[in-house]
Amino acid sequence: MLFADILRLGERKHAKTIRAGAGLMVLETLCAAVPYVALYGALDLVLAGRTDRVGPFLALAGVAVTGLLAQYLFGLYAARLSITGGYALMAGFRVSLAEHISRLPLGVLTRSRVGQLNALISDNVRMIEDMFTHVLGEMTAAVVLPACVAVLLLVVDWRMGLAAIATVPVAWAVLLLSRRRFARLSAQRLAGHDDVAAALLEYIDGMPVLRSCGAEGDKFRTLSEAMHGFRRISSRLEAWGGASVVGFAVILELGFAALLAAGTYLVLGGEVERAAFLMAMVLAQKFYAPMTRAGMLMAEGDYLGRAVDKVKAVMDLAPLPEPAQPARTEGTDVTFDAVTFGYDPGRSVLDDVSVTIPAGKVTALVGPSGAGKTTLVHLTARFHDPDAGAVRLGGVDLCDLGSEQVMAKVAMVLQDVHLFDDTVAANIRLGRPEATDAEVRRAAEVAQCHDFITALPQGYDTRIGEDGARLSGGQKQRLSIARALLKDAPVLLLDEGTASVDVETELAFHRAFARPGAGKTVVMIAHRLSSIVHADQILVMDGGRIVERGSHAGLLAAGGLYADLWRAATCDQDGPAEEPAGASAPAAIDRGA
Ligand SMILES: Nc1ncnc2c1ncn2[C@@H]1O[C@H](COP(=O)(O)OP(=O)(O)OP(=O)(O)O)[C@@H](O)[C@H]1O
């Protein structure tokens, strides 16, 4: 994506404002040359001895003052237009980027990706914003002014003009040749910046674990290495960029020496007026400095280009295709029809899975860690589309239903609970914004959180801090359960939804919410095998396939993987365990079993 693409992506009127600003900057720069033209005229008069009349001098002074005034006014409006247009354009671009991200498959938004996106939007997009609000104006002046001055020099005397600009092609050739390495170093510096951000986040995030394991030192070394790596690549980039720009400036300045030599020779030979020579010397000051600045800005532009590449990589992530006319369904059974899916090419995580999850029944998923249980749940909510086969709800392919409809039919309690820095009530009400206070309270009661909520300083109106910072893990989990409960969707997906609540709460939750006959199609990944013994159907997964299917009793009797897991969970090594009496078997299965 080039800056032009961002201009195209943004609102037309803002792009127009920026272009108008750039146009005014060109005028501003042209006006900057006017006083020099007037000066040239005055010098000409003086050296020709025509100083007897004040009129011409006054007229030239008027021209110079008008030029300065126009330069000031154009500059003022140019800055105003480019700044307001630039900020407005980039605000729009940020919204487009956020909208694009909101259409990405949910499965793409993993925690590490979210960190990258955050850095991308806050750092890289801000750099591009600087480009439109500040750098563009400077760049315009740095290119237009030397171009105007070069024309003036050629007009004053073409030989001196040629001498002044003789080294320009060589200087630019050197700068352009150094660009490739500069671009490589820029990409490395941006990657180094990401490494530091990721290492810092991991270090701060993992502090409790690191301290408890006494591994702070190791991780600190990793962080410190990332920081020193960033320092090294930054220094290398600056050194290389600095050296190439200094080389560029030196070669340019050789042009001044050539101008001086040529001018002196021509004046001494009587071929050029002294006024013209003096004028060329003055104009030269407005030629080399801005052009050197243009070279520096080009190097900065290359660095910005890499930042733009990173933004482009996100804009290139494909959203899920959505149907033009979404199909409808009233059915709530879920069918996996020969579904194959993998996160990385060539590595299937679900392998030709065909299964029906009946409407209104509780289906439990069990299996060793990495078997694909979470992936199967995510596909049910269309976090991703399968690579092959189809996932259907009520007989309709989720791709034909579209993400919005799928989300409307599904409530989820996932491993990572997310709460917002808002009141308790607002966090629960996210499940169904139009719910009454009584409904919110009822959901909280069923999810066993009413008591702790009423003990909070402002009850349901208590703000819970960023991501529920003022709540315990179990309390957060229960709030997310209340939210899902309030949504009252026909399909309920529970991925370790009760992992951090105590056994009583878990069982109460299952009685109220996920019990057979409650009318919901429930798909749950079991944390405690004891909580799924009454499930209508248990699917046992291993290596991306469903290897067993049946009821608790049937699977125990079959003596396969489920029976092994049950034995491990109940620590009974002497044979298949008996089904626990009701809810009184709190044995937990380690998901890595
Ligand atoms: N976002 C991802 N990118 C790449 N691979 C992934 C991703 N998420 C999961 N996997 C891989 O897919 C496989 C199945 O993971 P999944 O989380 O579905 O298993 P699971 O049975 O739910 O495991 P667990 O019980 O440990 O949560 C694993 O090998 C895992 O490494």
TrEMBL record:
Domain ABC transmembrane type-1: 20-300
Boundaries of every ABC transporter domain copy: 334-568
Membrane topology: Multi-pass membrane protein
Cellular component, GO annotation: plasma membrane
Gene3D superfamilies on file: ABC transporter type 1, transmembrane domain (1.20.1560.10), P-loop containing nucleotide triphosphate hydrolases (3.40.50.300)
Organism: Rhodospira trueperi
PROSITE patterns: ABC_TM1F, ABC_TRANSPORTER_1, ABC_TRANSPORTER_2
Source lineage: Bacteria, Pseudomonadati, Pseudomonadota, Alphaproteobacteria, Rhodospirillales
Name recorded for this polypeptide: ATP-binding cassette, subfamily B
